[in-house]
Design brief:
Its EC number is 4.2.1.33. It holds the Pfam family Aconitase_C. Heterodimer of LeuC and LeuD. InterPro entries: 3-IsopropMal_deHydase_ssu, Aconitase/3IPM_dehydase_swvl, AconitaseA/IPMdHydase_ssu_swvl, IPMI_Swivel, LeuD. Strand 6 and strand 7 form a beta hairpin. Strands 4-3-2-1-5-6-7 form a seven-stranded mixed beta sheet. Helix content is 33%, strand content 16%. The two termini are 34 Å apart.
């Protein structure tokens, strides 16, 4: 998993509440088990017209936001079914951080397992960040995980809380497999002792 330490990038405003996982990645794209290639399907029902052309009114299709790496979204982001394809699609598009006032629990946990930082802020702080994000190409934010700070284009700073263990995993690029491999020496030692004491096993 890619490490997350400090991210500076364009923030796209998406002030819609209750964005569920079907809006993030519609069900017809769930046939694959690959984590790549889903970026083109991200928010597809909002990004594309019925004829497949770009919906120029959707924020991620606007020239200033096509390279956005931060999403500033409305309350209860990631609700609905527990599809892991949702963070896969965000990550494949290039989104490494989502900021909201609240997240659905399963989506929130899946973000950490896929290298995406979900940041919870207050309503007042979200309003300020949405205003920052509305500046188009000038809507650059810096998210510093080590100091747990979001720095705005005008120099304002918003602090956020995060579980220390999840912070450690993100900063070191550790998913569940990575955490297990950190114990590889202990696992190998246990297996060696077990094979000596139980050669028939």
């Amino acid at each position: 998993m890619q490490k997350f330490t400090t991210l500076t990038g364009v923030a796209a405003p998406l002030p819609i509440i209750n964005i569920d996982t079907d809006m993030i990645i519609p069900k017809q794209y769930l046939k694959t088990i690959k984590r790549t290639g889903l970026g083109t399907a991200l928010f597809s029902e909002m990004r594309y017209n019925e004829d497949g052309s770009d919906n120029t009114d959707f924020v991620l299709n606007k020239p200033a936001y096509k390279g956005a790496s931060i999403l500033v979204a409305g309350d209860n982001f990631g609700c609905g079914s527990s599809r892991e394809h949702a963070p896969w699609a965000l990550l494949d598009f290039g989104i490494r951080c989502v900021i909201s006032t609240s997240f659905a629990d399963i989506f929130y946990n899946n973000c950490f397992k896929n290298g995406i930082l979900p940041v919870v802020v207050s309503k007042e702080e979200l309003d300020k960040l949405l205003d920052d994000a509305s500046r188009g190409a000038n809507s650059t934010l810096t998210v510093d995980l080590e100091t747990q700070e979001i720095k705005g284009p005008d120099g304002g700073v918003i602090r956020f809380e995060i579980d220390p263990f999840r912070k450690h995993c993100l900063m070191n690029g550790l998913d569940d497999i990575g955490l297990t491999m950190e114990k590889a020496a202990s696992i190998d030692s246990f297996e060696a002792k077990a094979s000596q004491s139980r050669p028939w096993a």
